[in-house]
Amino acid sequence: MKTNLIRQAINYVLSFLLFSFSFQSLFAEEKVTLHLKWFHQFQFAGYYAAYEKGFYKDVGLDVEIIESTVGIKGIHEKVVKTTGQYGVGSNEILLHRHMGKPVVVLGVIFQHSPSVLFFKKSSNVQSIHDLVGKRVMLTPWMEEIVVYLKKEGINTSDLQILEHRFNPRDLIEGRVDAFSGYATTQAYDFKKAGFQFIAYSPRLAGIDFYGDNFFTSEDELKKHPNRVKVFREATLRGWQYAMSHQEEIADLIYNKYSKKNPKERLLFEAEQMTPLIQPVLVEMGYMNPGRWKHINDIYHELGMLPKNMNLKGFLYDPNPPTNYEWLYYSFFIILSAVGIIWLIQWKRLNKQYSENLKNQVKQRTEELRQSNESLQILNQSLVNTLKELTEAQDRLLASEKLAVLGQLAAGMAHELNTPLGAIVSSNLSLLDFLKNKLHSVISTIIHFNEEDSKRYHLVLAESLENQTYIEGKLERNLKKEIHLKFSHLEKMDLYGSHLQMVIETGLFRKPNQIEYILESERSLEILQVVSSINSAYRCNQIISVASEKATHVIRALKNYLVSEKETTSDESIIDLESEIETILSLYHYNLSKVTVVKNYGTDTKCIGNRDKLNQVWINLINNGLHAMSYTGTLEIKIQSIQKWIKVSVIDSGVGVPDGIKEKIFEPFFTTKPNGEGMGLGLDICRKMIIQMGGKIELEPVSQGACFSVWLPKAKF
């Protein structure tokens, strides 16, 4: 009795201590520090929102946000020095990782870097190649600008590099010819000052770096994995809130953190950040290992990093693969326990059968009922796991869509930038004609006499009917030929205005009318008026052609991204020709050196899933282009064979060696270097095709490789 009382007292004391410790841990806030890489501004809005809206507090964190007055210098050393430290960085974090600092990037905020190179619009620097020998201020650690210049054939040794003072007045007042900075901030200062500028982004040359990210140390992740996880989740929640409530957060920054920048500048910065962060299209914090490999390759070209740097441990994985070993062990233990119990009971039944038969039968029945319940629970768990795997496959398809856009972003940007540049240039010429020349043209035409009006209409009709632009050596030879033919006319001097206008208006194509036109005292005015109208007409044609080209690219991107409900099941009716044309439009930039042969032998539709089939076409086309090194012939053939629609993708590449033909459809088998490829794999393609009632196979060809997909025909 006394022993039992002592034992109960000890249990009460231990329970009280355990409850006290748990209560204190529940309400205690862990102190951590976040180091920004610059002054307080909207660039760090998500961190302020996470703090002020209590997102950090909700997960038990007391976060101290510290701004930097010297840029990113020294932040990495502070973060790795002690646990509880976090920082905001850029792509330079990869260099620090290589230098031995155990940093771990937790998430990317800017999907595209805001770094640009600013020029004065009216200066003698009108293109990137005019920079040679000029004065340039480059921001430290902004290596994508250096790579951009190098890709355009310009080394830093070709420039007069000046120390960056981060003062826009240096460019405005002409103390420097080019000035690197952020499109989200410095652009506001230039516009506010009424300064006309041009901004060149490295993305024009296909150099698409990430922008801001946030990171911590390996020590912090090892000792406090849950703290890292909740800090990341609260931070991304803060960024989502900040980008959805920009004006509110701008007021918060101005009133509480810093009045250095007016609210107008903060809102301008927020507006410019939206297309760089892409909060609607891309999941906040998402980062693609392939993009980091691209950054690694660029640094390698500069001699700053080794090729194919090992990124293991560098990129934080918020959702590591689930370990099901415990489930298998538990199941084995349960079965073993049931077996052992059954053996024990069996032996006891043999010994006491006559006495305990009724009790043993009852006991065994109860044990079987419990075992059945355990198996039902386990079966439900397996059903849930299968559901999760199905959902994971759908997320994988969505992720692959974004990965394709990430790989093709530079090409699509070029496809849009070229026609848009032509539209802007032609529009400026039209504006100049309407504002400065139209009144003069009308006034001149009105004062023509009847004979001059006939001459004017004759030249105008010829000029507009044959829009031929002649330049260079051909123009000089044509001038000499016309001058010799009409040397008896004083007005047809080789270097005179009349001869130039005869070429520009196309009048030279009617040599029998030249003397008639030049007989007029106002012949030069007639030719100049027609030349002005002809230039405006040519600009209109350029705008029309360029608009159609840009519309084609955007239409293809929309068709790829947006799926109708009736095309997302495995039993949807699919127009293969339309879908393949959409994929080829997305790859247009990558097909510049490839001859595409389209052999569409039927327009019959098939049965399948649009999104899954598009991923199959992308995988096969991408494999073919990679095998050809993006040079050669790519043939796409569609055939109707009995109850099947057969789609064949044939490339002129190196082909598939006999030794691996049996392995190409195995899971995770690839011949590409690490970090390349779509990530789906031919095995997953094969499984998706089988789910749709079809099949995929490698067919023998004389050169290259031929992958054929068989899909059931649609019934009408």
Could you describe the 3D structure shown?
The structure is a single chain. The protein is 54% helix and 13% strand. The chain is α/β, with parallel strands linked by helices and 716 residues long. The protein folds into four domains: 30-113 and 209-302, D-Maltodextrin-Binding Protein, domain 2 (3-Layer(aba) Sandwich); 116-205, Periplasmic binding protein-like II (D-Maltodextrin-Binding Protein, domain 2, 3-Layer(aba) Sandwich); 328-562, no CATH class; 572-712, Heat Shock Protein 90 (2-Layer Sandwich), CATH 3.30.565. A five-stranded mixed β-sheet has the order 2-1-3-10-4, sandwiched between helices. Strands 7-6-8-5-9 form a five-stranded mixed β-sheet. Helix 2 packs across helix 10 (225-244), helix 14 (325-446) packs across helix 21 and helix 21 (610-627) packs antiparallel against helix 22 (681-691). The chain is extended and about 140 Å long.
Features:
alpha/beta, D-Maltodextrin-Binding Protein, domain 2, 5-stranded mixed beta sheet, extended, iron, metal-binding, NMT1/THI5
Summarize the structure.
The chain is an alpha/beta fold.
Topology (SSEs and partners):
Layout: H1 2-27, E1 30-35, H2 45-52, H3 55-58, E2 61-66, H4 75-81, E3 85-89, H5 93-98, E4 103-108, E5 115-120, E6 135-137, H6 143-151, E7 160-162, H7 169-172, E8 178-182, H8 186-192, E9 197-200, E10 213-217, H9 218-223, H10 225-244, H11 246-257, H12 263-277, H13 289-301, H14 325-446, H15 450-465, H16 472-485, H17 497-505, H18 511-518, H19 523-561, E11 572-574, H20 576-586, E12 594-600, E13 606-608, H21 610-627, E14 632-641, E15 644-651, H22 681-691, E16 695-699, E17 705-712
Parallel strand pairs: 1-2, 1-3, 6-7, 6-8, 12-14
Antiparallel strand pairs: 3-10, 4-10, 5-8, 5-9, 11-13, 14-15, 15-17, 16-17
